């Protein structure tokens, strides 16, 4: 995408507005126009002036020409008369007035017909010898009439006559211009007349240019109103001409073409100017308005350009900063734009992908993208998930948000959601599977079961639900560590799967609990066969590091539709059956039966009853005495709790202790036992010990040291007389806590005994690392003692160990004399059992103690 650069000169601040530009332009135009008009005006005036001037000049020339023509006519006329033999004879050689005037040769006709007001003949002496004025014979000297010296003229005339020419000039006569023509009298071409030697007389004709004649003369030459200027001078605006030979000044009416021009053109120019001005005004208004609009448009444009730049920059930043890439396709769904992020995210080359069809790059689960776009892209927030191969060839997933560009194609963003989808799938998987074994978990199993039940299993084709619980698994976990436990669980899950067909399901629903959903079993026998196989498989040894581990399993069976048709019921019944299987000695299976449920309900009822048992005083203690084998002296007694249930009668601890442990009632129960036992023992002689059993659950809960201490304080019992019996499981969960607690108890001064020794895995190692004072050999070993020996070697080893560790060794469950003898043989310290005494009540134990023999 091409980058737009911000040009500071084009910024709104840097730009002169259109309005002021337009105003400046208009002002300049107006000034130019004005100047033009002024120039035109000046030119017009100057042209008019020139015209006027030219017209004046023309008129002057015309007037002069007119006067010249008059002169010429007069000159030629005078020549005609002067170069005539008769006239030479009658007016030069002698002056014959009669011939001249009388006979009208040079008489009044010259005035009347030719317009000469004065006719004169001047003889060589300069005397006027003949004169006719206004057609009348008069005796007037020419110079007197004209008031000018005449001699130069006479000389010129005589001279010109040599060339047969006359002379003419303008003169003033009676205050008016007049044309004077003079010619020397000569015989002319008349051979009969002989010219005199000496100067000739000169004939002079004078024609006055009277006003009418002058006006007519002007008119003949196109000059109107030609007249003699008034004596006071002429007005400046009236054209005038000073005549040659000082003949005066004439003036005439100017036709004033300049004025005419001005009169004609000025209004036109004015009108044109006005029109221009008006137009200029209108244009100015319009262009000002336009400029204003342009200005505002420009400002808007600049603002929107700036906004565009900002938005462009923002888009670019967002496009580059976003984790999404931005795309555009044309109406053929070919890529026309891919943002820079495309390359980064997809690992593909955006430049190579331009022009590529969207379907070639992206694949949607919803079918071809081209079809999907047609159907869905017009909706707001259209989103489609697509798969594609990254530059590395890895399958990736992206989410396209699509927006239609009407008539052009589509655009939108693409977010890579590969990790999100994978995480979601992982979460989905985890929510459906057990993280450790990868088996289905409870919720997946329930879904599966519900699905299977919807297919409506029949009695002939039942659906079998197996609930499996591992036996003896907990010690593996506890003794070999969680990693080993996990290993066993994984192997178990593989073994279970190995027993099933593909469409059956194995689920792990708890620590060591599994559920199997099996279809296609036709008879209970077949189910039993499966259960046997499952248990056999699980009983195969597991090899965990260097250990060989043996566990087993109990199985509860429920079937649909025989037992139930609802998933929840089926699961519950399988659990009840499992409980029954465990109750009946483990390593076995049980089919669900209707009365099982009743037993479970009974157990729940017992739980409820136990809550009231303590405060209702339904508990009591029996005491089983323990004897020194050597000398058979009563050494102490073990407190054993009993529950006198109001309806069920006397219940043993094996029935309700597990319930108390499960429900947390063990703490109040144990407190009661401790208190009651110590109180009883406080009344016994100092050398009789009292033993109290502790549950491993209360051992972990803490406060045990404080509780024991409180009981000792309350009852006043010497701590050295109290023995606490712990089983190995106390130490299994958290050795550190166990050790701390045991040391705390030891600090109180009480003794610690290990109960049921030999039944666990590591009894021996525990004996070494924990502060025990004695151990009680489990009665299963004692039961194996016979007259012939039996388990004697084991008991002998245990006794030897106890002695080595300075522990008091007690044998439990001594039921026969032989057993007692055998124990005596291996030098076991103490014995307890029905053979010596069954557990008895407080009163009876007191009697036994009192009646003991030393
Ligand atoms: P235990 O600690 O091993 O207690 C001895 C059990 O063996 C007693 O059963 C006793 O009646 C029985 N017994 C004694 N001599 C013989 C014999 O010669 N042969 C046979 N077969 N059994 C004999 P009881 O009283 O039913 O107690 C069962 C278990 O309940 C005890 O086993 C003990 O672990 C637990 N228990 C009893 N009282 C309490 C108590 O107050 N608190 C706790 N936490 N557990 C108790
Ligand atoms: Ca015991
Ligand atoms: Ca025991």
Automatic annotation (TrEMBL):
Residues 311-355 form the PAS domain. Residues 603-853 form the EAL domain. It holds the Pfam family GGDEF. Residues 461-594 form the GGDEF domain. InterPro entries: Biofilm_reg_signaling, CHASE4, EAL_dom, EAL_sf, GGDEF_dom, Nucleotide_cyclase, PAS, PAS-like_dom_sf. Keywords: Membrane, Transmembrane, Transmembrane helix. The chain crosses the membrane at residues 24-45, 261-283. This is EAL domain-containing protein. It comes from Pseudomonas hygromyciniae. The lineage of its organism: Bacteria, Pseudomonadati, Pseudomonadota, Gammaproteobacteria, Pseudomonadales.
């Amino acid at each position: 995408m091409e980058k737009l650069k911000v040009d500071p000169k084009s910024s709104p601040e840097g730009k002169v507005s259109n309005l002021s530009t337009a105003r400046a332009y208009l002002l300049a135009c107006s000034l130019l126009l004005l100047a033009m008009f002024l120039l035109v005006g000046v030119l017009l005036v100057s042209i008019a002036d020139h015209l006027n001037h030219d017209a004046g000049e023309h008129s002057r020339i015309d007037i002069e020409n007119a006067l010249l023509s008059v002169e010429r006519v007069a000159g030629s006329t005078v020549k005609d008369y002067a170069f005539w033999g008769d006239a030479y004879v009658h007016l030069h050689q002698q002056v014959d007035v009669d011939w001249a005037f009388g006979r009208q040769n040079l008489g009044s006709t010259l005035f009347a017909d030719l317009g000469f007001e004065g006719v004169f003949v001047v003889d060589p002496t300069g005397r006027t010898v003949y004169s006719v004025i206004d057609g009348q014979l008069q005796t007037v000297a020419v110079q007197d009439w004209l008031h000018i010296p005449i001699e130069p003229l006479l000389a010129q005339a005589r001279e010109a006559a040599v060339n047969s020419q006359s002379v003419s000039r303008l003169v003033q006569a009676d205050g008016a211009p007049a044309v004077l023509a003079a010619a020397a009298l000569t015989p002319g071409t008349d051979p009969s007349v002989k010219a005199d030697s000496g100067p000739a007389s000169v004939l002079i004709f004078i024609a006055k240019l009277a006003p009418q004649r002058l006006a007519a003369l002007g008119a003949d030459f196109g000059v109107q109103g030609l007249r003699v200027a008034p004596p006071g001078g002429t007005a400046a605006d009236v054209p005038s001409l000073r005549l040659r030979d000082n003949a005066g000044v004439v003036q005439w009416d100017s036709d004033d073409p300049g004025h005419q021009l001005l009169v004609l053109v000025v209004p036109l120019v004015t009108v044109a100017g006005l029109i221009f001005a008006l137009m200029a005004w209108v244009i100015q208004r319009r262009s000002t308005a336009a400029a204003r609009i342009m200005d505002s448009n420009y400002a808007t444009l600049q603002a929107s350009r700036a906004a565009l730049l900002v938005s462009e920059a923002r888009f670019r930043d967002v496009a580059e900063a976003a984790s999404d890439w931005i795309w555009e396709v044309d109406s053929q769904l070919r890529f026309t734009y891919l943002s820079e992020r495309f390359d980064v995210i997809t690992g593909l080359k955006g430049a190579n992908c331009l022009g590529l069809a969207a379907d070639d790059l992206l694949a949607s689960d919803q079918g071809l993208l081209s079809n999907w776009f047609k159907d869905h892209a017009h909706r707001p927030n259209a989103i489609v998930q697509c798969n594609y191969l990254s530059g590395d060839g890895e399958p990736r997933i992206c989410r396209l948000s699509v927006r239609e560009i009407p008539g052009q194609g589509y655009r939108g963003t693409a977010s890579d959601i590969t990790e999100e989808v994978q995480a979601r799938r992982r979460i989905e998987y985890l929510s459906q599977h057990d993280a450790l074994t990868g088996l289905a978990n409870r919720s997946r199993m329930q879904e599966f079961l519900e699905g299977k039940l919807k297919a409506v299993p029949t009695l002939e084709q039942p659906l079998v639900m197996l609930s499996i619980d591992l036996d003896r698994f907990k010690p593996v976990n506890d003794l070999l560590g969680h990693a080993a436990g996990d290993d066993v669980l994984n192997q178990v899950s593989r073994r279970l799967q190995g027993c099933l067909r593909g469409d059956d399901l194995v689920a792990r629903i708890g620590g060591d609990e599994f559920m199997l959903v099996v279809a296609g079993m036709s008879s209970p026998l077949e189910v039993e066969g499966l259960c046997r196989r499952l248990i056999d498989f699980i009983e195969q040894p597991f090899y965990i590091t260097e250990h060989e581990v043996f566990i087993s399993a109990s199985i509860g069976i429920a079937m649909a539709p025989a037992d139930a048709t609802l998933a929840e019921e089926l699961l519950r019944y399988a659990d009840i059956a499992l409980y029954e299987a465990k109750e009946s000695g483990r390593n076995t299976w049980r089919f669900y039966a209707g009365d099982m449920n009743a037993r479970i309900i009974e157990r729940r009822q017992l739980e409820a009853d136990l809550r009231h048992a303590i405060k209702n005083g339904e508990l009591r203690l029996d005491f089983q005495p323990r004897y020194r084998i050597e000398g058979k002296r009563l050494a102490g007694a073990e407190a054993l709790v009993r529950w006198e249930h109001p309806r069920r009668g006397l219940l043993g601890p094996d029935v309700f202790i597990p319930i108390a442990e499960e429900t947390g009632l063990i703490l109040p129960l144990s407190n009661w036992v401790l208190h009651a036992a110590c109180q009883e023992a406080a009344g016994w002689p100092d050398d009789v010990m009292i033993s109290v059993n502790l549950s491993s659950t209360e051992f972990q809960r803490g406060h045990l040291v404080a509780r024991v201490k409180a009981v000792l304080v309350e009852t006043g019992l010497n701590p050295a007389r109290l023995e606490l019996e712990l089983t190995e499981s106390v130490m299994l969960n958290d050795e550190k806590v166990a050790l701390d607690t045991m040391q705390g108890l030891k600090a109180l001064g009480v003794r610690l005994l290990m109960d049921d020794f030999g039944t666990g895995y590591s009894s021996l190692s525990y004996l070494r690392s924990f502060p025990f004072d004695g151990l009680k050999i489990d009665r299963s070993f004692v039961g194996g003692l016979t007259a012939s020996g039996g388990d004697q070697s084991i008991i002998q080893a245990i006794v030897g160990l106890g002695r080595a560790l300075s522990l008091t060794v007690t044998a439990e469950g001594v039921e026969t004399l032989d057993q007692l003898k055998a124990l005596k043989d291996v030098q076991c310290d103490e014995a307890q059992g029905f053979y010596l005494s069954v557990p008895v009540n407080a009163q009876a134990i007191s009697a036994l103690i009192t009646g003991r023999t030393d």
